[in-house]
Amino acid sequence: MEAILAFTVAIFFAVSIYLMLSKHIIRILLGVSVFSNAVNLTIFTAGRVTREVPPIIPIDLDVPAGSVANPLPQALILTAIVISFSIFAFLLVLAFRSYQELGTDDTDGMRVAEPKGEDLPPLGY
User: Fold this and answer.
1) pTM of the full structure
2) The CA-based dihedral angle spanning residues 58, 61, 67, 70, taken in that order and rounded to the nearest 10 degrees
3) What are the pLDDT tens digits along the chain (125 aa)?
4) SS3 (DSSP) at 5
5) Contact between 94 and 29 (Cβ < 8 Å)
6) Of 38, 73, 101, 123, most Cβ neighbours within 10 A?
7) Can you tell me whether residue 4 is helix, strand or coil?
């Protein structure tokens, strides 16, 4: 099962990097969203994928008897899902507002601080 999830995570990372290298804002936002899902799956895979018993400690023991499920990766992923969804919603509204203001979602067309008709500044040295 871990091999299938590792392959799925690799595909998610590849797709997200491809989308984030685009010049269009919507594709970049979708790439960030897929990237956060890939990170969540990585954390989930690292926290053991086997079916275990709940982490309940009996009264007469100090530690659980046998192997139990690790609740920490599940809690981290749940928190990350909520935070990434709220950030994605905020960035989507921000991208929509910039599209309304500038009339384009192309990052090259969003260069409003640079004068038109002049060469682009040097991008490297």
Assistant:
1) 0.76
2) 70
3) 778 888 999 999 999 999 999 999 999 999 999 999 999 999 888 877 666 677 778 888 888 777 777 778 888 999 999 999 999 999 999 999 989 988 888 888 887 766 677 777 677 66
4) helix
5) no
6) 38
7) helix
